[in-house]
What we know:
Blueprint: E1 2-7, H1 11-27, E2 32-33, E3 41-48, H2 53-67, E4 72-81, E5 85-92, H3 94-110, E6 123-128, H4 134-143, E7 152-153, E8 156-164, E9 171-180
Antiparallel strand pairs: 1-3, 1-8, 2-6, 4-5, 4-7, 5-6, 8-9
Helix pairs in contact: 2-3
Keywords: Hydrolase, Ligase
Function: Hydrolyzes RNA 2',3'-cyclic phosphodiester to an RNA 2'-phosphomonoester.
Pfam families: 2_5_RNA_ligase2
Amino acid sequence: MRLFVALAPPDDAKDxxxxxxxxxxxxxxxLRWNRIEDWHITLAFLGELPVATVPLLRPALARLAADxxxxxxxxxxxxxxxxxxxxxxxxGELAGLHRLADEVRDTARACGIAFQERPLRPHLTLARAKRxxxxxxxxxxxxxxxxxxxxxxxxxxxLVGSNIGRGPGVIRYxxxxxxxxxxxx
Length: 185
């Protein structure tokens, strides 16, 4: 099972970004758009792990969330990685977000999980392009340049599993469990 730990924007913040993306959805319908319900901000990608890892992570991540303040964030602008992946940027309490990601990685290591360290580059993945569609990603990214979403508080820390779905490049996500941050009711 592929596991990662993430934050999810609230529905109204996702709806706000989806509305800004409407012209790109129509113009670039051939891109592989992520489903809005799958939008997330990855804090730590733990990789392919045995299912037996999940019971080790649950109590540790629950404690981490209960002890951690909820970061205030917002979706902002757009960009791309390698001209093949479209994303929306993240702004707000980024120092707190980086601390949280560090604590998530420390928690996973304390549970005996070895994983490839990747620096946190806060973003929300929106779409992927096949070879030859790079200019569409660049144009869609430019279309988000002026987007600034509202500020929101991350409510929960999510442990997510992912599987490759039907068709090339199709990834399906499912929340395994989510825990409220300190101060959230």
